[in-house]
Design a protein that fits this description.
Number of helices: 3
Shape: globular
CATH architecture: Roll
Distance between the termini: 42 Å
Structural class: alpha+beta
Number of strands: 7
Number of domains: 1
CATH class: Alpha Beta
Strand content: over 45%
Largest sheet: 7 strands, mixed
Amino acid sequence: MPINYYGDMTNRIPNIVQSWANSIANRNAKTQTSFYSKDALLLATYEPILIGQEEIYNYFLDLLSKKNIRCIIRENYSINNLEMIVASGLYTFSFEDDDNETINIPARYTFVIHRNRIIDHHSSEEPTN
């Protein structure tokens, strides 16, 4: 039987990704940044490539300032091998605007996880069509 070097595909959300999503509601940039490795990359929709925890921390200071922000994972596909986990899927960020109206931002993601730390994270708003 051939060896699958890429790992097995699953719909199970990796613990670190679920914890990351749950933590958004706490609105704590230091905690959110702690999920990332020291030299992690973050590529977000409206940002240049963010490199390292300091830049990622500053990004979360702004993002997490939104009132009642939440993140719900809607769909996930993960490949898990002995070295890394790659998790891709869909999530929705929600928060309240200045008029207390709920804003929902559907987005897609890919996390690359090594040694239980995020080393690369791509997040982008879902296209409208």
